[in-house]
Amino acid sequence: MATIRITTTEEEQSIVLNTIKKLQGDTVPVSTIASMCGLSQSRTRYALVDLEDAGTIKKVPTKAFNKHYIRYRYDIIK
Questions:
Q1: Domain boundaries, position 72
Q2: Number of folded domains in the chain?
Q3: Rounded CA separation 69/4 (Å)
Q4: 3-25 tens-digit pLDDT
Q5: pTM value?
Q6: What DSSP state is assigned to residue 38?
Q7: Mean pLDDT of the chain, nearest integer
Q8: Domain for residue 2, yes or no?
Q9: CA nearest to 15, candidates 42, 41, 45, 47
């Protein structure tokens, strides 16, 4: 099976990281982060995954409404 890898630019990652710094400690949906960044929700999700893979942020589950609907807080590691 093919693996699809979507990467984001350093600029997009930087924008998302700066927004997370403003929201540090708060549980927010990706849609809120995306609207504050001026990016689409999908590009924001990809940037969050890239930042997590790089070890820059940590995704911490805070609210689990059910097994498919979970809210997260993003903590900055470096």
A1: 10-76
A2: 1
A3: 24
A4: 888 889 999 999 999 999 999 88
A5: 0.88
A6: T
A7: 92
A8: no
A9: 47
